[in-house]
Amino acid sequence: MTTASTARVGVESVAAGSAPAWAARTTGLRKVYGSTVAVDRVDLAVPHGAVLGMLGPNGSGKTTTIRMLLGLVTPTEGAVELLGQPLPGGAERALPHVGALVEGPGFHPFLSGRENLRRAASAEPLLATGSIRSAVQTALDRVGLAGAADRRYRGYSLGMKQRLGLAAALLVPRKLIVLDEPTNGLDPAGTREIRQVIADLHAAGTTVVVSSHLLAEVEATCTHVAVLRRGTVVAQGALADLLQAGTPALLVSTPQVTEALNALRAARVSARQVADGVRVELIGTTAPAVLATLVHAGVEVHEARRHRDGLEDVFARLTESETTDRSTVDTVEEEQR
For the sheet containing 36-46, what is the strand order? Predict the structure, then answer.
């Protein structure tokens, strides 16, 4: 355990140094529990200022990767770099600039939310003692907990506990925020509020890593995505690039579905029936050529629009062969905690 003064020296050295190439990076990261491989050769790169969504089925290694990234779990093999500092050696210099909510918050049940935050704030090397009161109030306001701040933590709902955990991560300005399932237990209004918090952090230049099962939320808030499957990264990069990598298609609205399919297949164009018409894969052809084929065949075309797969489609394609036997990994990981 380091003293606050020692940690502040490390903080100042990070702030004064040149900016590293990545906010966080892992190389050949591997974690083995007995005979079970939870994470296998993960190479992850998180650009500065990005909002990266970490996706994967249950047991794909997301939480274990996050815990190794934060120095909470020691890798079996591989290297971790956080804000330009290698872990574990550079933890004192990097971690004060990192806020995290991992696997739900842990607070004292008989203390109020405000009292719990004050205790957390007193351990922050970046926070002067005289600023604790205002920092706690600001964090409570930011996550919508001001009205319940003086209630005991043990009486909080799951969503309120998540909010308090997020407030603890936001007590001081951070360079990196890591959130593991931050909307767990929240109602739709709470989910929208968390989305706004992430958007505000992004606008301020903070790097955010979010692990989530809510693909619509990831698509709405993230700039980058990393998809894990069976303990390894199967795709990562800018979200826009990942979505653009899907096969483009043309959705044609027509009452003459059979005639449209026959005409397109005769022209060797891949197509299938969908609601209100046909979906045409634009492989080796173009939208104008498809429409010309249909019109020439006398097919009524009421509407035509370009379509690309959403994140849900891309995620399903990347993880479709994932099996349910990863429950063994979940069990082993839980035992190790």
Answer: 36-46, 24-33, 77-82, 85-87
Buried b (16+ CB within 10 A) or exposed e, 209-234: bbbbebbebbbebbebbbbbbbbbbe
Which string of DSSP letters, residue by residue, matches 211-273? E-S-HHHHHHH-SEEEEEETTEEEEEEEHHHHHHTSPPEEEEE-S-HHHHHHHHHHTT--EEE
Token reading at 15: 């702030």
- Asked if residue 119 has pLDDT above 90, the reply is yes
pLDDT in tens, 288-303: 999 999 999 999 999 9
**What number of other Cβ atoms are within 10 A of residue 18's Cβ?**
6
Sheet containing 98-101: give its strands across: 98-101, 176-180, 207-211, 51-55, 224-229, 232-238
Decide if pLDDT at 16 tops 50: no
In the DSSP assignment, the letter for residue 98 is E
**What 3-state DSSP class applies to 112?**
strand
Whether omega before 109 lies within 30 degrees of 0, making that bond cis, reads no
Q: How much is the mean pLDDT over the chain? A: 84
Per-residue pLDDT band for 201 (boundaries 50, 70, 90) equals: very high
| pTM, rounded to two decimals | 0.74
Domains along the sequence of the chain with CATH: 4-240 (3.40.50.300), 247-307 (3.30.70.100)
- Identity at 147, one-letter amino acid code: G
Can you spell out the DSSP letters for 154-196?
A: GG--HHHHHHHHHHHHTSS--SEEEEESTTTT--HHHHHHHHH
Helix H or strand E segment including 137? helix 132-142
Helix axes 188-203, 158-169, angle to 10 degrees: 10
Separation of first and last alpha carbons in the chain: 20
